[in-house]
C-alpha cells in the first residue's frame, strides 16, 4: 500500500487583515508588491462606513447649538426635527448593516479558561444593543410624528414621556453604575489585546485543528470579527447616547464624543497590529477529523487502491526455473515470479500471481488457508499456521479451508511455503492515479475550497471543490460544488502511462508528503499530480487576487508550483 496521502494542502491564504488607513494617500504610497494586498476586512469596512455616517449625524446634532437662544416653541420643534433625523440615521444603519440579534461567534473562546472573564462583557454589550435597536424600531414613528406636528400644548405630555425615556436610555448606556459600556469595552480590550488573549486563542485553535471544520486562521479571524463587531456596537451606542443627550439639552458632549472616537481608533489599530502578528504565527492549514471509529465508508470517507501488494502463499519450488528448494524463503525478496506449478499442489488451487513477487518470509511449515470469495478484494480470508500464528481474522470459512504442507526433498532440502507479497496489475487491481489537473473555473471567479479523492474506472483522481470568491476573502457558500473529473481508462487509446496517469507498483508507490503553499496575495485554483522520479508529487495552481474586490486578477497569469524541496 502506498504510505499515505498528501498531508496538508493549504487552501486559502485569504485571511489578511489590513490596517485601517485613515489617510488614503498612505495606500497609494505602498509598494506595488504589496499593493494588491491592501484592503480592509468586512468589519473594518463596516466601521469605516459607520464613521462616515457618524460625521453626518453630528453635523445635524450640532445644529442644536444654534437653537438655545430661540423661542421655546421654535426650539422644541427644532429639537423634534433633529431627533427624527438622528433616529432615522441610526435605525437605517442598524437595519441595513447590522444583525442586532447576532451575539457573535465565541466558540473558540469557550474553550479557554479566560472565557468567563469576557463572557459577561460581551453579553452585556450585545444585549444592550438589542434594547437600543428595539427602541429605535418602536419609537421611530413617534419621533417622526412629533417632528410633524406644530409645537402646541397638544401632545405635550406624550412628548415629555418620550423625552424621559430617551434620556433614561442614554444615561443607562453611558453612566450605568454597574456596567457602563465604556468600561465594558475597556475590559474587552484589556483582555483580548493587553493580555494577548488572541495569542492563547490562536494556540487553542491549533490544538483543536480538525474539530471546527475551519483552519486556525479562520477561527481566529471569526473571533476577531465577533469582538470587533461587539466593540463597534458598544461604540455606536455611546455616540448615539451623547447625541441624544445633547439634543435633549443635557450638555455639550462634543469633547466626550471625540474622546470615544480617539479611543476607538487607538484600540482598533492596536488590535489590528496584534491580529496581524498573531495571524502570521497561526496556521492556515485545514484538516478534516477522521470519522468516528467504525463509521468509515468506502467511496464516502475513503477510497482504496486494491490488490496492489497482496499477501501470497507460494512454495519456493515454483519461484525458480529449475524446480529446486536449495534456498530459503528469505532468498526470494525482490522481483521473483511464479515459474510453474510443481505437481499441481496448492498453486493449482489459487489464482496465480501473474506479476512480481517480493519480500518472502518463512512463518511455519504447515498451515490451513481459508480462501476469499471470488469477487473479493482479498485473496485469503485468513491463514492459520500449525504453530498457532494467524494472519487475517479467523472466522467461519464458507468455502472450506485447505491444508497446505511444506515438504522435505531427500531429507536435505525443505520445500517451504513462503508468505510473500504479490504485485500483479491484473484487472482487479485498482492502482492508477490520474495525472490530469483538477482546477476551478477562474473565468467565473471560482477558487478552490476543498479537495478529495474519488475513484473512477480503477483510477484515483484528486479533485477540487470550487466556490465563488467574494470581497474580503469570503466565499459565496451557495456556489460550492465539486469539479467532476472526466473519467478515463488506463486502456483508452491515446492515454499514456506517465502522462495521463501513473501506475503504482512495488517500486513506484511513494507519494511525497510535502507542504505546498500559495504565495501571499494568491489563492489556490487547481491541483494535479506529477511524477518525480518514481514518486507522486503534488503541484498546485495559484492565481493572484484582488482582496478588496474579491476578484481573480488576470486568470491567464495563473502559475503552477510544486514543493521547493521535493527530493524527499
Ligand atoms: C482592486 O479592486 C478595487 C475595487 O474594484 C480597485 O479599486 C483596486 O484598484 C484594485 N486593486 C488592484 C491592485 O487591482
Ligand atoms: C461645545 O463644545 C465645543 C468644543 O469644546 C465648542 O466648540 C462648542 O462651542 C460648544 N458648544 C456649546 C453650545 O457650548
Ligand atoms: C467503491 O467504488 C468502486 C468503483 O470505483 C466499486 O467497485 C466498489 O464496490 C465501491 N465500494 C462500495 C463500498 O460501494
Ligand atoms: C451557507 O452559510 C449559511 C450561513 O452561515 C449556512 O446557514 C448555510 O447552511 C451554508 N450553506 C452551505 C451550502 O454550506
Ligand atoms: C486570456 O487568454 C485568452 C485565450 O488564451 C484570451 O482570449 C484572453 O483575451 C486573455 N485574457 C487576458 C486578460 O489577457
UniProtKB/TrEMBL annotation:
Residues 1-27 form the signal peptide. The keyword Signal applies. Pfam families: DUF4803 (PF16061). Residues 254-281 form a coiled coil. The keyword Coiled coil applies. InterPro entries: DUF4803. Keywords: Coiled coil, Signal. This is Uncharacterized protein. The lineage of its organism: Eukaryota, Metazoa, Ecdysozoa, Arthropoda, Hexapoda.
